[in-house]
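Chapter summary example: a protein plus pyridoxal-5'-phosphate.
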Amino acid sequence: MKKPSARTKSLIAKGRKYYTAAYKPREMILDRGKGALAWDLDGNDYVDLGAGIAVSALGHHRREMLDALMGQAKKLWHTSNIYFTAPPVLLAEELVKSSKFARRVFLTNSGGEANEAAIKLARKYAADKGRPAQQRNIVTFTGSFHGRTLATVTATAQPKYQAGFEPLPPGFRYCPFNDFAAASRMIDSTVCAVLIEPVQGEGGITPAKPGFLKHLQELCHKHDALLMLDEVQCGMGRCGALFAYFAERGVKPDVVTLAKALGGGIPIGAMLVGEKAENVFQYGSHGSTFGGNPLACAVARVVLQKLQTKTLQKNIRERGTQLASALAAINNRHGVFSEIRGRGLMIGAELSDPHKGKASDIVETARSHGVLVLQAGPNVLRFLPPLTITEKEMKEGVKRLEQAIQTHIGPPSLRA
Ligand SMILES: *Cc1c(COP(=O)(O)O)cnc(C)c1O
């Protein structure tokens, strides 16, 4: 790594001074990218195995996305949802057709907003049926993550995200993830919706057990509740298929939320609604000034189209296998992981006992070796590379990761 320049140091100092301290960005200023590579202001290169957080699905600086963005930018930036424009209308059609269940779409700017819309939709679904407020509970799961707005952080069943923000809105119930019996107990006639990530992201890359979504679907059916899938992180090709729920046969959700990869780096989110609840939102029920912005939608249309190509889906499978076996090989040599899990290009490596709590340190060492990886909780290294990553980029990324791990744990002779 080159030494940080005066400009890098000055920008970091300003960021520390003028941002609220809600984030703790790493000591570099990222400046440009291409494919799965990114460069900082000082010219250091990084293999990006995080894609932001599962956002840059088609990699950085992709020609087709740039053309779509520039093409729209030269025509019209914004009009408000009181008028139609072509890109959001066409994106809504394409989302409905590719989802296999949806009838209608509400476009937002982020995942949190998409989930917020879903929560409001679920409450109104029950209200429309004459159910009083006490019978509009929403069940979510331990280890989940649904966003940072007050309602979505309440849906997020992890105390660390909620502490200090009380009073939290009522009407949420937390069920242990993948616990069939607990779900049967908790989902009763006072529940209007179940919100779940088919593969938990922030919680540690934990897939729902086979049959769990189906089980929830049956309980929802029995109690007239909506099955709502948060695919903000695990959707849009990340797990191999366009939607993560495609992996489980017979599951037909009522609502699916999307964001992150949908815009390939441009802010956008979406709530997809199936037949059961398609008429819940009526004129005036909900709104968003920027949701469905033509610039974002023009880019999202390109992303959605690319994600459905056979070549990209093949790449997700092949690079996913490459990454998982490279991590297994690293583990054979260094014994740092207790488990490597996930699907497609959504992979988590849980640190073994002697390295527990060290994910954050390893992430930082990896950065200083030129590879960007993420963590999920204190013990899991999380990999969410661009879905377009090449074999060569992946190979270089895991090579740098191994160097970082070696540096981190010290030479074999010093290990216990
Ligand atoms: C990131 C994330 C969100 C929140 O999305 P924002 O765009 O940050 O509001 C919600 N759900 C899941 C599963 C996520 O990973």
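Key point: The radius of gyration is 22 Å.
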